[in-house]
Design brief:
With 431 residues, the protein is of the alpha/beta class. The protein contains 11 helices and 14 strands. The chain has 3 domains: 56 residues; 151 residues, Beta-lactamase; 131 residues, 3-Layer(bba) Sandwich (D-tyrosyl-trna(Tyr) Deacylase, Chain: A), CATH 3.50.80.20.
C-alpha cells in the first residue's frame, strides 16, 4: 500500500512540474511577444518620427538651386493672392546661366512702372551711354545797332530737366550778342514729336505729365517764361510768339544739355513718369522721323524683343512709363531684358546705378530692410490700381547674381502684393 501511495505522489509531483513548465513557457512566449510587439510599436513610433522629420525637413538640405526653388514654391502656393489675383514670377541665375524658378512667367500682365525697365534698356542700347538731352536757342537774320532783325528759335528736345537756370542761359546768350531789341518772332520749335499730349491708354483724371518737347520745370509754359525773362532783362520784342520749324541755316546760340544718366537716375529711383516718357520719345526720335511718334519708339522696342528671341506680337507696349492700362508684358520678357542688360556692359553700367536700392533709396527706401536684402536688392517697382510689380537684380550668399521679375494683377490692396515681393526677395538672398 505504501508503494502505491508513493508512486501516486510521484506522479502528481511530475504532472505539476510539467504544468508549471508549460505555464512558464507560455508566459515567456507571451512576454516575448509583448516585447516583440513593444519593439514593433517602438519601431513604428520611430518610423513615424522619421516620416515626420522627413516631411518637416527644411529645404536647406537640398542643393542650392533646388533649395531656392522649393522655398519659392512654398511661398507662392501658400499665398492668399493666388486665389484672388494673377501672379507671374521668374528668377534667373545670371552666374550659372540657368532658370531657377518660373511661375506663370508667360502670362501677359500689366507691368505698371516696371515698364520703365524696358524703356530704359532699349533706349540705352539704342542711344548709348553718352547720349545728351538737348534744348537749343538759335536765330536767323542780322544784328545791327543792338537790333536783331530776324527770328529767335527755341528748339525743344524734350528735356525734362530744363529749368529756370537753363532759361536764364538763353537770355544771357542773346545779351552776349549786345542785342536789346528783337525785331522778329519768337518761335517755339516743337517739331521733335507729334502733338499728342497724353499717352495711349492714360486715364484722363490721373496726374499725367504733359508730353511736350518744350518744357520748363516740368510745365508747358516755356515761351511765356522766356518772354518774361527777356523783358526783365530789358530786351524789347517787336514780334509775335509762334510755333514753327527751325531753318537749317539758323545760327546756334546756346545749347543746354543733360546726360542720359541724369535722366535715368530720377526716372528709375523716383519712378518719374515724365522722365520716362522723355526717354521714350528720345528713342522715338532716333528713328529719324520728325515729328516722331510713340509708334516709332514701340517699333524699336519690338526690334529688341525680336533680338531676344521672343515674339513682339505677344506683348503690347503702349507708353514708356507704364502709366497706360494698355501695356501688357510678361515676367519672362522682363527677365530677358534684364539678362540682356547684364550681358551688355554698355547698358548695365548705366542701368544698374539707377535702380532703387532696398532699404536705402528711391521707391525701395522703406522696404526690405532686413540683413539679407538691404543694400542688396536693386529693382524697379511698379504700382497702379490693382497692379504691383518688382523687377531687378540681387546677389546670393554663394556669390551668384540673379535677376527676377514679379508681376501681380488684381490685388485690391498694395500691401499683400508688396509683402509677397519682399518675401520672395528675402528667400533669394538668405543663406
Amino acid at each position: 500500500m505504501k508503494t502505491i501511495i508513493t508512486i501516486f505522489l510521484a506522479f502528481i509531483a511530475n504532472f505539476t512540474l510539467q504544468a508549471q513548465s508549460l505555464d512558464d513557457g507560455m508566459d515567456a512566449t507571451v512576454q516575448a511577444d509583448s516585447v516583440s510587439q513593444a519593439t514593433v510599436q517602438a519601431d513604428s513610433v520611430s518610423q513615424a518620427t522619421v516620416q515626420a522629420d522627413f516631411v518637416s525637413l527644411p529645404s536647406d538640405s537640398l542643393p542650392w538651386p533646388d533649395n531656392v526653388k522649393a522655398r519659392l514654391e512654398n511661398i507662392i502656393s501658400s499665398s492668399p493672392l493666388l486665389s484672388t489675383s494673377n501672379i507671374g514670377v521668374m528668377v534667373y541665375d545670371l552666374t550659372a546661366d540657368s532658370t531657377i524658378f518660373r511661375y506663370n512667367e508667360r502670362k501677359t500682365l500689366r507691368p505698371a512702372s516696371t515698364m520703365k525697365l524696358i524703356t530704359a534698356i532699349t533706349a540705352i542700347d539704342r542711344l548709348g551711354g553718352s547720349y545728351q538731352f538737348r534744348t537749343s536757342l538759335r536765330y536767323t537774320g542780322s544784328i545791327t545797332d543792338n537790333v536783331l532783325t530776324g527770328d529767335v528759335y527755341c528748339v525743344g528736345g524734350f528735356d525734362p530737366r530744363f529749368n529756370s537756370d537753363d532759361l536764364k542761359a538763353f537770355v544771357e546768350g542773346i545779351r552776349s550778342l549786345g542785342v536789346d531789341t528783337i525785331r522778329g518772332c519768337l518761335v517755339a520749335d516743337k517739331m521733335m514729336k507729334n502733338n499728342d499730349r497724353l499717352g495711349w491708354g492714360w486715364c484722363w483724371d490721373d496726374d499725367n505729365p504733359v508730353l511736350s518737347p518744350l518744357l520748363i520745370s516740368r510745365k508747358d509754359n516755356f515761351m511765356e517764361k522766356f518772354v518774361s525773362e527777356l523783358v526783365d532783362a530789358g530786351i524789347v520784342i517787336q514780334g509775335n510768339v509762334i510755333e514753327g520749324d527751325t531753318p537749317s541755316d539758323a545760327y546756334e546760340l546756346v545749347d543746354r544739355t543733360h546726360s542720359i544718366d541724369q535722366i535715368l537716375m530720377r526716372m528709375m529711383k523716383d519712378s518719374d513718369n515724365l522722365y520716362a516718357e522723355a526717354l521714350f520719345y528720345q528713342l522715338a526720335a532716333s528713328s529719324g522721323n520728325r515729328p516722331c511718334t510713340a509708334q516709332n519708339a514701340r517699333n524699336l522696342i519690338k526690334r529688341l524683343v525680336r533680338k531676344l528671341g521672343l515674339n513682339p506680337s505677344d506683348y503690347v507696349f503702349a507708353d514708356g512709363s507704364g502709366l497706360s492700362l494698355y501695356n501688357y508684358v510678361t515676367a519672362e520678357l522682363e527677365v530677358e531684358m534684364l539678362k540682356y542688360a547684364y550681358r551688355n556692359s554698355n547698358v548695365y553700367l548705366h542701368l544698374y546705378p539707377s535702380l532703387p536700392i532696398a532699404g536705402s533709396d528711391g521707391t525701395l527706401k522703406r522696404r526690405m530692410r532686413n540683413a539679407f536684402t538691404a543694400d542688396n536688392v536693386r529693382a524697379k517697382t511698379g504700382t497702379l490700381s490693382g497692379v504691383q510689380s518688382l523687377a531687378g537684380y540681387c546677389s546670393t550668399p554663394n556669390n551668384h547674381t540673379l535677376c527676377f521679375a514679379i508681376i501681380n494683377n488684381g490685388s485690391l490692396k498694395d500691401s499683400p502684393a508688396r509683402a509677397l515681393q519682399n518675401e520672395i526677395c528675402t528667400e533669394l538672398c538668405r543663406p
